[in-house]
Write a structure and sequence with these properties.
The structure is a single chain. The chain contains eleven helices and three strands. It is elongated and about 120 Å long. This is COP9 signalosome complex subunit 7.
Length: 264
């Protein structure tokens, strides 16, 4: 049965139980080989109410399996005792906690973390309770004495971890907003630069067109010649002026061109 379905079924059963039956259900859930998260059970009101009863140890057990590791168990002073199946399961959960941040777990690190001294016992936990149960996908490198993790199931996040995650997400959001503002400013600058460039190109095109039109007008005037550009009238006036100057007093326009003959 998939672990998600098991988790939901345990939570549904727990809603209808109180006291000792609920404590026994919690004990059974913590021995399920493929269950790695227990938050659905832990946050139920009925489970939290166990803290004020003679079955308070069941709540401590569930807290340990939700957030704790083998070292938390070995160092606790509450007198909590685990069955052999629960010990193997807690060691497997401890491997998940380590695999959450690293993909290469050396035996030298795993042995003390799981409270073990023999490599064979360690490899038995890794093969049977981690890889075999579907909690970890990876392989053992016996030559290098390590577990190479490809993928691992995530455990429940503790309240402290949730605060750290929220802070990290907040920092990421602030950074994303800063990047978005910088991109928007760069885009606005690019738009303004493109508009200025377009205006400059339009002005340059207008100047070129004006010069072309002026050059065309001059060329057209040169092609028409002096007869139509006012110069012929000027020359006519000058010839008339020269003709009048050559006339003496009493001369008439008809004989203005007749000059007196000189006597020898």
């Amino acid at each position: 049965m998939p672990s998600d379905i098991k988790r939901v079924q345990y939570a549904q059963l727990a809603r209808s139980l109180r006291g000792r039956p609920l404590a026994e259900l919690i004990s059974r859930a913590t021995t399920e080989p493929d269950l790695a998260t227990f938050g659905d059970l832990l946050h139920l009101t009925a489970v939290q109410e166990l803290s004020n009863t003679e079955d308070a140890a069941a709540l401590s057990l569930l807290n340990l399996f939700s957030y704790g590791t083998w070292q938390d168990y070995s160092g606790q002073a509450s007198g909590l005792r685990l069955t052999a199946a629960q010990e193997r399961k807690l060691r497997a959960l401890t491997v998940l906690s380590l695999a959450a941040s690293r993909r290469r777990l050396a035996y030298a690190e795993l042995l003390p973390a799981l409270g073990l001294q023999d490599v064979r016992d360690l490899e038995d936990i890794l093969v049977t309770n981690c890889i075999g149960a579907g909690l970890v996908r990876g392989r053992l490198d016996q030559a290098e004495q390590c577990l190479l993790v490809e993928e691992s199931v995530a455990r429940d996040a503790s309240p402290a971890q949730l605060s750290a995650i929220a802070a990290s997400l907040g920092a990421w959001l602030d950074s994303a907003r800063g990047v978005a503002a910088a991109v928007e400013a760069a885009l606005q600058s690019a738009v303004e630069g493109a508009a200025a460039e377009a205006a400059q190109q339009a002005q340059l095109a207008a100047d070129i067109q004006a010069k072309r039109e002026g050059a065309a007008a001059v060329h057209e005037a040169d092609a028409e010649g002096p007869a139509n550009n006012g110069l012929s009238g000027l020359f006519a006036d000058e010839s008339e002026m020269f003709s009048l100057e050559s006339m003496g007093e009493g001369s008439t326009p008809g004989n203005a061109a007749r000059l007196p003959k000189r006597r020898r």
